[in-house]
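Q: Got a minute? One more chain.
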Amino acid sequence: MGLLLAGDIGGTKTSLSLVDAKTPEHSLWRCRYPSQNYPSLTPIVQEFLAQAQQELGRAPQPAAACFAIAGPVVEQRAKVTNLPWNLQASQLEAELGIPHVALINDFSAVGYGVLTLKDKDLDTLQAGERQPQAPIGVIGAGTGLGQAYLTWGEGCYQVHPSEGGHVDFSPRTPLEWELLMYLQKRHGRISTERVVSGQGIVAIYQFLRDSNWGQGEEQLLSQIKAWEKGAESIDPAAQIANAAMEARDPLAVECLRLFISLYGATVGNFALQLLPRGGLFIAGGIAPKLLRLLHQGEFLPSFLDKGRMRPLLEQLSVQVVVNAQVGLMGAAAYASTL
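A: Always. Here it is, folded:
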């Protein structure tokens, strides 16, 4: 088949990778672009292929492409969440001159990707026991809260997308009820993704600050205020996480404690719904950056806090995907089937 093009398309960034069809796990040329700086996907791909030509010394002509989309994909059409992009596979084929283009959900791509991972790509939170051909669960917080699951059939795993991150947020404690009411006044209906995601970290911090929970560091408070007034250069979730990891802001420390607890509870709910005895993988951009807190904090206690179902969850293998290219790897694997 020659060359394949894989893409991971998100509201924040678009990552593209060019691979050889015989070895789709190895990238020949890879690059990342700020999604919001472009009117659609086509000019990004055109720019990427032009750069690849300079790097490789020849004009790349992909025989097939797979783009993993942060949002639902229906009949090869997709609206990218958090971007004004409406994508259609047949239109991309025509605009890019690529014979075969497929659109899949971004966490479907992660699902295909986890099947290619090695031990070095994973960090174990709970060893458990993985059973062959049993269901596999994939969940992860980043810009949003993605979910997918895999089931065995016809001699291989089939990947199924999910929009389970948009279920209703369900508080467990008085503090979480206060958080829910705070967010409802701002947004109306509150999904789990509103809380367990990058935007959730910011929302929790704002809630603690506005509830006079405690005194925050002046520098961080000023940065959050500037972001609220439109300073797009500031990444508030990253600033809050850094302040918490360095223990220099009490509000940030409590924010991350609550976030980690909510994350664990959410993953536990997902595990109960699916019973992923084939393995539970935590992907997304946030978990690898907070590994120390995931190991030391309230993630596993909240994950396991399911009453009589605790022994069942204790049997599961729970691992964090630390290879940031897992979505691209999955898209490349899917492209190889086209």
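A: The mean pLDDT is 93.
Q: Perfect, thanks.
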